[in-house]
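JOB MANIFEST
job_type = single_chain_structure
chain_count = 1
residues = 173
[input]
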Amino acid sequence: MRRTGYLSLTGIALICIGIFAVAQKGMTHPFYISVCQVDHDPDTRTLEITFKIFIDDLEQTLEAQGTGKLHLGTDRESDAADRYIARYLEQHVLIEIDGRTLTGNYLGKETESDVIWCYVEMEDVPSIHTITVTNTLLIDMFEDQTNMVHIKANGQKKSMLLTRVLDRDTVEF
C-alpha cells in the first residue's frame, strides 16, 4: 500500500504542539492546519470524531461561502453557526470503513482561545479493518492547508497528513 501521506506520530505531535502553542499566545498563526482525531469505540460501535480548527480560518472559509459574519465563540455568535459548521464538515470530510461510506451526526462545538473543537459521531461501526479518510477542510481557501488525521482503533494508533495534493488516504488495522 502506498503511504505518501504518512508521518510518524512523534513528528505529527511535535508539529501540533508548536503550531497550537503559537495560537495560545494570541499571535497570528503562520500555518494553516487542522487536526482530526478519530476514535473507534467497539463497545458502542461508534466512531467518535473531534476536529480542532483555528476559528479565524473556519470563519473566513464559511463567510466566503456566503454565511455572513458568524462571530464564533462570542456572545454575538450567529444562531445558524452550528448548522453551517455541520454542513461544511459533511461536505468536506468523508470516512469509509472497509469500503462502506459512513454518515456523521454533528454533536456540537466548543471554543477555546483561537481554536474551535467540533464533535461528530458515526454509528454502526462494529469493527475496522481499513479506514479511508478524505479531508478537504479549508483547502479551497488556503493553498498551504494541512489536515492531520489521527486514528485509534483495535488498540493501534495511525496517522495521515492530508493536503491539497493528497486529500485522501487509507490505513489498515
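[summary]
The beta strands are 33-41, 46-54, 93-97, 100-101, 105-112, 115-122, 130-135, 146-153, 156-163, 168-172.
The mean pLDDT is 89.
exit_status = 0
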